[in-house]
Amino acid sequence: MTTLSVDRVRDALAGVNDPEIKRPITELGMVDDIAIQGDRVDVKVLLTVAACPMRDRLTKDVSAAVAALEGVRDVQVELGVMSDEQRQGLREQLRGGQATREIPFAQPGSLTKVYAIASGKGGVGKSSVTVNLALAMAETGLKVGVVDADVYGHSVPAMLGVGDQRPTQVDDMIMPVPVMDLKVMSVGMLKPRREQVVAWRGPMLDRALVQMLSDVYWGDLDALLLDLPPGTGDMAISLGQHLANAEVIVVTTPQAAAAEVAERAGTMASMMHQRVGGVVENMSYLACPHCGPEHKIEVFGSGGADRVAATLEQRFGYDVPVLGRIPLDEQLREGGDLGKPIVTAAPDSPAATELRQMAEALAGRSRGLAGMQLGLTPANQA
Ligand SMILES: Nc1ncnc2c1ncn2[C@@H]1O[C@H](COP(=O)(O)OP(=O)(O)OP(=O)(O)O)[C@@H](O)[C@H]1O
Ligand SMILES: [Mg+2]
Ligand SMILES: [Zn+2]
Fold first, then answer.
1. Structure confidence at residue 132 as a pLDDT band (50, 70, 90)
2. Which residues contact 362 (CB under 8 A, 6 or more apart)?
3. Host H or E run for residue 94
4. Percent helix, strand and coil across the chain, each rounded to 5?
5. For residue 361, which of 280, 306, 297 has the smallest C-alpha distance?
6. How far apart are CA 150 and CA 249, in angstroms?
7. Does residue 100 have a pLDDT over 60?
8. Could you identify the atom of ligand 1 that is nearest to the CA of residue 123?
9. Higher pLDDT, 207 or 376
10. 115 pairs with which residues across the strands?
11. Which of 37, 34, 40 is nearest to 14 (CA)?
12. How far apart are CA 104 and CA 96, in angstroms?
């Protein structure tokens, strides 16, 4: 029998990640004290901030990890709060010693692929596409972050079922909200109170975007998806200035009028020196309730995405593919309303299948961290 020791408890705690930062609590300086008395272990864990929404989860994870050790009958977890100096140390550690605020995704060596989901007009399904694409990409094993930059709607958190959650803030560093393998930050979460009406004008929008990109601790991401406000407004300009390397995905419906405005969004992207990565046609058709999916009822007409892609291709001189066509599906709307996106709620539906195919195509194209690790095999297994 191995004897219980502080080191063994510490080793066990190294398997517990902070739910928000997603790194071992032992590395983050969160394990303050370990005391062993017979078969009872007392662990003191320091939270980054007192109002940490993850305190129950952390208590449970710590208890479980220690209780699993041989010779332990009782685990007591005490929660404390980091001092200002401890927080400062953590912040410096997370930033890798970087003193000034900068946008990590805009750095030359960044491995994070940034996708800006744009549309000419509202209500075409941008947020639905963003959320479901992000989840489908995470399913392929990528680390994915979502920024809800839509100042008019900010519907992304609700679509993911975290509409009421606020991010934890460690001094001037903000932790994105973890949900379903994603990390999420919304411009709506930056407002002090939800009822407060904010007139988002140019400079303020710019500050909000920079804050979401540089003050938020994203960690290593393979992909970052941004849900932009509809149209070609200030947010698109800010994004172009701060993240020229973002790839713009244009969402449109099959309608001719929608296609026209979608083209404008694409042109805007190119003016900001961003590449248009492709076009998504949403609400593409309705599967006939009588004949099944072979009979596609074109509720909103047809040809929208093809037209946008062809126009942009001609204008820019590079290939602009139609990435996918998502049918009208009541489950998609319902999933959004209930905070259970269709990709996870009805994974076999034609809409979810199409979204997953798009995510796989994009993930395959991205030069993500996951891709870079391929081919590394531990020597003793070769
Ligand atoms: N393929 C679809 N089938 C059925 N309903 C859909 C589909 N796509 C989107 N919807 C529904 O249409 C509404 C608008 O979608 P969504 O909010 O994603 O669009 P948006 O472009 O982000 O809108 P906004 O401009 O308001 O931000 C939502 O209620 C959503 O659930
Ligand atoms: Mg939206
Ligand atoms: Zn039919």
1. very high
2. 113, 115, 133, 137, 223, 277, 323
3. helix 84-94
4. 40, 20, 40
5. 280
6. 15
7. no
8. 23
9. 207
10. 225, 247
11. 34
12. 11
Residue 135 in contact with ligand 1 by CB distance below 6 A: no
Q: Which residues contact 184 (CB under 8 A, 6 or more apart)?
A: 145, 146, 147, 148, 156, 157, 160, 162, 176, 177, 178
Q: In degrees, to the nearest 5, what angle opens at C-alpha 135 toward C-alphas 131 and 141?
A: 150
Q: Vertex 285, ends 281 and 321: CA angle to 5°?
A: 25
* Tokens describing residue 66: 């220690």
Q: How far apart are CA 189 and CA 194, in angstroms?
A: 8
**Contact call for residues 218 and 104 (beta carbons, < 8 A):** yes
Ligand 1 geometric centre to CA of 127 (Å): 7
Using an 8 Å Cβ cutoff, are 363 and 223 in contact?
A: yes
Ligand 1 atom closest to the CA of 284, numbered from 1: 1
Ligand located closest to 289 CA: 3
Test site for ligand 1: of 119, 126, 128, most ligand atoms within 8 A of the Cβ = 128
Residues 316-373: pLDDT tens digits?
889 999 999 999 999 999 999 999 999 999 999 999 999 999 999 988 765 444 434 3
Substitution site in 117, 119, 127 for ligand 1 pocket (most atoms within 8 Å of beta carbon): 127
